Amino acid sequence: MAGLILRNIHKRFGNNTVIPNLNLEIQTGEFVTLLGPSGCGKTTLLRMIAGLEKINSGELYIGGKYMNPVPPQKRPIGMVFQSYALFPHMNVRNNIAFGLKIQKKDRADIFTKLDWVLPLLGLEKYTERLPKQLSGGQRQRVALARALVLDPDVLLLDEPLSNLDAALREKATEELKRIHMKVGKTIIYVTHNQIEAMTMSHRIAVMRNGQVEQYDKPSVLYDSPATYNAACFIGSPVTNTLTGTLKTDGKDAILHSSIGPIRVALGDSPALQKYDGVEVLASIRPQDIRLKTETNSSVANLSTEISVRVEMTETPGDRSLIIARAGKNDATTIRFFVHRSRHVSRGDLQSILIPGNRLHLYDTKTKMNIR
Ligand code: ATP
Asked: For ligand 1, atom 27, which residue shows the shortest CA distance?
């Protein structure tokens, strides 16, 4: 049975519809991320699941039970807010135990829960401290502990790492994943940070304008984006985008793009044929482009050679990111990677290879993948 079902969910504030009609199923124990730009409705969706926001129409089930009429405190959920919402005058121990006391659990029960959760989250040394005496990461763990001791079926996490600096954030991401593996709760995580989403989630729901554009495993989102928006939102650095007119004779296809004609691997996609002579959008990941001199001939045969002028290079690790310009008036930016041992300098002219089987094409109006 699915841990959570959202069926035909509709939400509006006054006359402003923020979620027109949303469907989502989450399995028990799954870590699912709602990923999307600011204002796309992630927090609103989380608040409806928590019962903090009314659902205008549609149905919500948790563990098979119809939840729409159930008040927040009776729902089997725990929520961690971006602000953590810790009680400033209570120490760590009392913050964590607060919910258990409200539930009138006996002292022995509360001690057992604290003995379990404090080491789980590495908080044993901080039990007497007030929130203001903790780091951002420690506060986040207290907030998580406070939710976990109530043993909810579903944990809702609303951008819990956004107050942390980059290094702490990376560590906290790893820690959250570890905690999820230990406790096995269903987690719904909200973020606009695609790296966090890709690192932690079993599945990601890519949201835009209150709709789920694609719901799948991170690897599928990366390799086969269903929409132009999903392609642009997932992956680092951002994917290369092009526009062009498609010409196909049914066997072969060429994208006449802003950087020149590019061979498209048709595969067995008859869908492409109806786009003959039509303008389309295209994307190709920087990781899929190679320098011609770095590529063996079997790959080169399936690719199109394009000439680019290097504008900038960045070498953060074992590879250098090359930001280059191509096409008429050098108007199009193309990003790709080379091994750091290659000496590529600003102003160099280089030949790159664009593999036709890694080029994604989208309808300009619907922004849906057309393969
Ligand atoms: P962010 O990443 O910035 O937190 P989000 O994806 O979580 O954004 P929501 O906070 O869910 O987005 O907001 C979705 C839309 O609903 C926005 O346009 C917002 O202005 C609107 N909205 C949210 N809460 C209310 C409210 N209480 N009254 C009116 N409009 C609201």
From this structure: 13
